[in-house]
Amino acid sequence: MPTDYFAQDPRTNLERMEAGDLYIADDPEIAHRQQRAVRLAARYQAAYAEDADAAQALLRELLGSLGEQAHLRPPVHVDYGSNISIGARTFVNYNLTALDVAAITIGEDCQIGPGVQLLTPTHPLEPRPRRDKLEAARPITIGDNVWIGGGAIVLPGVTIGENSVIGAGAVVTKDVPANVVAVGNPARVARSL
After folding, report:
1. pLDDT tens track of the chain, all 193 residues?
2. pTM recorded for the entire structure
3. In 61-156, where do the E strands start and end?
4. Is 123 assigned a catalytic role?
5. Residue in 32, 71, 77, 123 annotated catalytic
Protein backbone atom coordinates (compact mmCIF):
# COMPACT_ATOMS: atom_id res chain seq x y z
CA MET A 1 0.00 0.00 0.00
CA PRO A 2 1.50 3.37 -1.01
CA THR A 3 2.36 5.93 1.62
CA ASP A 4 -0.02 8.91 1.83
CA TYR A 5 2.59 11.55 0.99
CA PHE A 6 0.00 14.33 0.96
CA ALA A 7 -1.97 13.70 4.18
CA GLN A 8 -1.31 17.26 5.38
CA ASP A 9 -1.62 18.89 1.93
CA PRO A 10 -5.19 19.77 0.84
CA ARG A 11 -4.16 20.63 -2.74
CA THR A 12 -5.03 18.46 -5.71
CA ASN A 13 -2.25 16.72 -7.61
CA LEU A 14 -2.80 19.23 -10.42
CA GLU A 15 -2.24 22.11 -8.00
CA ARG A 16 0.91 20.46 -6.66
CA MET A 17 2.15 19.88 -10.21
CA GLU A 18 1.54 23.49 -11.21
CA ALA A 19 3.43 24.66 -8.09
CA GLY A 20 6.46 22.56 -9.06
CA ASP A 21 6.04 20.26 -6.06
CA LEU A 22 5.95 16.48 -5.91
CA TYR A 23 2.65 15.04 -7.15
CA ILE A 24 1.12 11.87 -8.56
CA ALA A 25 -0.27 12.13 -12.09
CA ASP A 26 -3.64 10.57 -11.25
CA ASP A 27 -5.70 13.76 -11.29
CA PRO A 28 -8.54 13.60 -13.88
CA GLU A 29 -7.80 17.18 -14.97
CA ILE A 30 -4.18 16.21 -15.68
CA ALA A 31 -5.40 13.35 -17.89
CA HIS A 32 -7.86 15.68 -19.64
CA ARG A 33 -5.13 18.23 -20.42
CA GLN A 34 -2.77 15.54 -21.68
CA GLN A 35 -5.45 14.12 -23.98
CA ARG A 36 -6.20 17.60 -25.31
CA ALA A 37 -2.50 17.99 -26.19
CA VAL A 38 -2.35 14.61 -27.96
CA ARG A 39 -5.47 15.47 -29.94
CA LEU A 40 -4.23 18.94 -30.98
CA ALA A 41 -0.75 17.65 -31.90
CA ALA A 42 -2.32 14.98 -34.13
CA ARG A 43 -4.64 17.52 -35.74
CA TYR A 44 -1.68 19.87 -36.30
CA GLN A 45 0.33 17.14 -38.01
CA ALA A 46 -2.57 16.22 -40.29
CA ALA A 47 -3.33 19.86 -41.15
CA TYR A 48 0.38 20.62 -41.78
CA ALA A 49 0.45 17.90 -44.44
CA GLU A 50 -2.29 19.79 -46.32
CA ASP A 51 -1.36 23.43 -45.66
CA ALA A 52 1.48 24.40 -43.32
CA ASP A 53 0.32 28.01 -43.03
CA ALA A 54 -3.27 27.11 -42.19
CA ALA A 55 -2.04 24.61 -39.57
CA GLN A 56 -0.52 27.49 -37.56
CA ALA A 57 -3.91 28.15 -35.93
CA LEU A 58 -3.86 24.66 -34.41
CA LEU A 59 -0.28 25.14 -33.23
CA ARG A 60 -1.26 28.40 -31.56
CA GLU A 61 -4.10 26.58 -29.82
CA LEU A 62 -1.73 23.83 -28.63
CA LEU A 63 1.10 26.02 -27.33
CA GLY A 64 1.13 28.62 -24.57
CA SER A 65 2.57 31.17 -27.00
CA LEU A 66 4.08 31.21 -30.48
CA GLY A 67 6.02 34.20 -31.77
CA GLU A 68 5.59 35.73 -35.20
CA GLN A 69 7.18 33.76 -38.03
CA ALA A 70 8.08 30.88 -35.69
CA HIS A 71 7.88 27.52 -37.43
CA LEU A 72 7.57 24.02 -35.97
CA ARG A 73 7.66 20.97 -38.22
CA PRO A 74 5.54 18.04 -37.01
CA PRO A 75 5.37 15.61 -35.46
CA VAL A 76 5.63 17.25 -32.06
CA HIS A 77 5.18 15.36 -28.80
CA VAL A 78 4.18 17.31 -25.68
CA ASP A 79 2.64 16.61 -22.29
CA TYR A 80 0.40 19.69 -22.28
CA GLY A 81 1.66 22.19 -24.87
CA SER A 82 0.22 25.05 -22.87
CA ASN A 83 3.46 25.36 -20.85
CA ILE A 84 5.57 25.96 -23.97
CA SER A 85 6.54 29.39 -25.26
CA ILE A 86 8.39 29.75 -28.58
CA GLY A 87 9.83 33.10 -29.60
CA ALA A 88 9.60 34.92 -32.89
CA ARG A 89 11.44 33.58 -35.93
CA THR A 90 12.45 30.36 -34.15
CA PHE A 91 12.63 27.21 -36.29
CA VAL A 92 12.01 23.77 -34.80
CA ASN A 93 12.71 20.79 -37.02
CA TYR A 94 10.90 17.42 -37.08
CA ASN A 95 10.10 15.27 -34.07
CA LEU A 96 10.48 17.60 -31.09
CA THR A 97 9.67 15.98 -27.75
CA ALA A 98 8.92 18.75 -25.24
CA LEU A 99 7.64 17.32 -21.96
CA ASP A 100 6.25 20.50 -20.49
CA VAL A 101 5.13 19.56 -16.98
CA ALA A 102 7.01 22.75 -16.05
CA ALA A 103 7.50 25.74 -18.33
CA ILE A 104 9.64 25.43 -21.45
CA THR A 105 10.67 28.83 -22.75
CA ILE A 106 12.42 29.02 -26.13
CA GLY A 107 13.74 32.43 -27.14
CA GLU A 108 13.66 34.27 -30.44
CA ASP A 109 15.67 33.32 -33.54
CA CYS A 110 16.55 29.84 -32.25
CA GLN A 111 17.31 26.83 -34.43
CA ILE A 112 16.31 23.46 -32.98
CA GLY A 113 17.37 20.34 -34.88
CA PRO A 114 15.37 17.18 -35.48
CA GLY A 115 14.73 14.76 -32.65
CA VAL A 116 15.55 17.19 -29.84
CA GLN A 117 14.17 16.36 -26.40
CA LEU A 118 13.34 19.05 -23.82
CA LEU A 119 12.49 17.16 -20.63
CA THR A 120 11.17 18.99 -17.55
CA PRO A 121 9.88 16.00 -15.49
CA THR A 122 11.92 14.59 -12.61
CA HIS A 123 11.45 11.57 -10.35
CA PRO A 124 12.78 10.85 -6.86
CA LEU A 125 16.09 9.02 -6.64
CA GLU A 126 14.83 7.05 -3.64
CA PRO A 127 13.21 3.76 -4.73
CA ARG A 128 10.05 3.85 -2.59
CA PRO A 129 8.65 7.25 -3.63
CA ARG A 130 9.55 6.50 -7.24
CA ARG A 131 7.70 3.16 -7.01
CA ASP A 132 4.77 5.09 -5.55
CA LYS A 133 4.73 7.21 -8.76
CA LEU A 134 5.80 10.56 -7.30
CA GLU A 135 7.17 13.05 -9.79
CA ALA A 136 7.87 16.76 -10.14
CA ALA A 137 9.31 19.07 -12.80
CA ARG A 138 11.77 21.93 -13.25
CA PRO A 139 11.58 24.52 -16.06
CA ILE A 140 13.84 24.74 -19.09
CA THR A 141 14.86 28.11 -20.53
CA ILE A 142 16.58 28.56 -23.89
CA GLY A 143 17.88 32.04 -24.65
CA ASP A 144 17.64 33.95 -27.92
CA ASN A 145 19.60 32.81 -30.99
CA VAL A 146 20.49 29.38 -29.57
CA TRP A 147 21.19 26.50 -31.93
CA ILE A 148 20.47 23.02 -30.57
CA GLY A 149 21.79 20.25 -32.81
CA GLY A 150 19.78 17.20 -33.78
CA GLY A 151 19.16 14.56 -31.16
CA ALA A 152 20.29 16.70 -28.23
CA ILE A 153 18.61 16.19 -24.86
CA VAL A 154 18.05 19.04 -22.40
CA LEU A 155 17.30 17.90 -18.85
CA PRO A 156 15.09 19.47 -16.13
CA GLY A 157 16.04 22.83 -14.71
CA VAL A 158 18.55 23.74 -17.43
CA THR A 159 19.05 27.24 -18.80
CA ILE A 160 20.97 27.75 -22.06
CA GLY A 161 22.33 31.27 -22.52
CA GLU A 162 21.80 33.37 -25.63
CA ASN A 163 23.83 32.73 -28.78
CA SER A 164 25.10 29.36 -27.54
CA VAL A 165 25.35 26.21 -29.65
CA ILE A 166 24.56 22.74 -28.33
CA GLY A 167 26.19 19.99 -30.39
CA ALA A 168 24.18 17.21 -31.98
CA GLY A 169 23.53 14.37 -29.56
CA ALA A 170 24.64 16.35 -26.51
CA VAL A 171 23.02 15.64 -23.14
CA VAL A 172 22.69 18.97 -21.32
CA THR A 173 22.59 18.24 -17.59
CA LYS A 174 23.42 21.71 -16.24
CA ASP A 175 23.22 25.35 -17.26
CA VAL A 176 25.19 26.49 -20.31
CA PRO A 177 26.39 30.12 -20.33
CA ALA A 178 25.81 32.54 -23.19
CA ASN A 179 28.08 32.61 -26.24
CA VAL A 180 29.64 29.14 -26.04
CA VAL A 181 29.64 25.80 -27.84
CA ALA A 182 28.76 22.84 -25.59
CA VAL A 183 29.10 19.22 -26.74
CA GLY A 184 29.13 15.69 -25.38
CA ASN A 185 27.51 13.57 -22.70
CA PRO A 186 27.31 15.23 -20.31
CA ALA A 187 27.58 18.43 -22.33
CA ARG A 188 30.65 20.51 -21.55
CA VAL A 189 31.73 23.89 -22.88
CA ALA A 190 34.18 23.25 -25.74
CA ARG A 191 34.86 26.87 -26.70
CA SER A 192 33.65 30.45 -26.50
CA LEU A 193 32.06 32.27 -29.41
Report:
1. 568 899 999 999 999 999 999 999 999 999 999 999 999 999 999 999 999 999 999 999 999 999 999 999 999 999 999 999 999 999 999 999 999 999 999 999 999 999 999 999 999 999 999 999 999 999 999 999 999 999 999 999 999 999 999 999 999 999 999 999 999 999 999 999 9
2. 0.95
3. 65-66, 71-72, 76-78, 84-86, 91-92, 96-99, 104-106, 111-112, 117-119, 121-122, 134-137, 140-142, 147-148, 153-154
4. yes
5. 123
